[in-house]
Amino acid sequence: MEPENNPVVKNPPVLPEPILLEGIGFTLEALLDYCKKQSKDLSLPRWRRDVSSFIALFLDPKSSKIIQKSSGSTGDPKSFTLSREAMCLSAERTLRYINLKRGDRALLALPIHYIAGKMMVVRALLGGLDLVLTEPSSRPLKDLSGVIDFAAMVPLQIEESLQGGDSLEQISKLIIGGGELYPATRKRLASMLRPEVFETFGMTETYTHFALKRINGPDPQSDFRLLEGVQIQLDSRGCLEVEVSGITSGALLTNDLVELNMAGDGFSWLGRFDNLINSGGIKIIPELLEGQAREAIGHDCIVLSEPDRKLGMRLVLLVEFEGSDPPIIRWLELLRRRLSAYEIPRRVLTVQTLPRNPSMKPDRTSARRLLL
């Protein structure tokens, strides 16, 4: 189902003034005028003009509609109109959950044409945060100085920043979404005292995330915790259905296989229904099996399938290994100690680098070609 274009919000929030942008305080009228001029200034880089254009569009409800292309998480990608009221509602929930306060510096490190970039701007406007602009890149912290209280980044930016020696410690609170973290990177983040790192779960149709999971600190969370106003349940396949008050009109159906926690305020993500493997009548979730295999053998891997005369489909484990003599027999011994008989791969292959898409998610289509 599509998001509701005009959800009812009884008391829409008012922007606190002065509105902060790159350390400068504006009235609403002054910021609107400033951004309109900036959006037309051809001497400025395109990314900066695009940010100014969105701010002007968001601040002026009489202007044209805010159009966003969906992620495709709930079906084929499509375009729909974003509701300003729903954007504000989503922003306020995040501000409260992460406990951001007026005057905090918020970094816009994501492209404004994505819903995640738009929502960072809206959170700053609604929360009285000082919005810091930087050109979207794989290393947004490279030339940035000063403390950042709040930032949102994708896994690729985290990987490149760590490899480039950029200081994530200059960020106080960091949310990560839009893809999967490498296991080694997740482990590194888990050991850091600063920033507070949250993994996010959401989609365009829910106006970015509706659940967060703290992955470091003294008490990391094992499951995603729901923001206020979010209700979830499982469909007949075991996939997540989510309804976000004021944002969705009814429940959104997903292909995400999840396990609800006992308290009913969160869930653990297991994998995608589209990736299920039926081997000998047993349904196997490859993402779940991959996590167990990584822990057993100490290498990143992808679980794939190939045709088998008896089983219909049999499991193949593709392992990231740079050496010339992979200890496959030893790996299989370790896997047998941890996995059930039907979860043991019938073949184990190695590659120097596992194929991944720009979001750092396993590229299973490209990986399957390596089995031929």
Give a verbal description of the structure:
The protein has helices at 28-39, 46-59, 84-98, 115-127, 155-163, 183-190, 286-297, 328-338, 364-369; strands at residues 19-21, 24-26, 66-69, 79-82, 105-108, 130-133, 148-153, 171-176, 196-203, 208-214, 224-226, 230-234, 239-244, 252-260, 266-272, 277-279, 282-284, 301-308, 312-320, 347-351. The chain is globular, with a radius of gyration of 22 Å. Residues 1-13 have low confidence and may be disordered. It is built from 9 helices and 20 strands. A hairpin with a 5-residue loop joins strand 14 (252-260) and strand 15. The chain is α/β, with parallel strands linked by helices and 372 residues long. It has an 11-stranded mixed beta sheet with strand order 6-5-7-8-9-10-11-15-14-13-12, sandwiched between helices. Helices cover 27% and strands 29% of the residues. Helix 1 (28-39) runs antiparallel to helix 2. The chain has 2 domains: 19-226, Rossmann fold, CATH 3.40.50.12780; 277-369, GMP Synthetase, Chain A, domain 3, CATH 3.30.300.
Keywords for this structure?
2 domains; GMP Synthetase, Chain A, domain 3; Rossmann fold; eleven-stranded mixed β-sheet; 9 helices; three-stranded mixed β-sheet; 29% strand; 27% helix; 20 strands; 372 residues; single chain; alpha/beta; globular
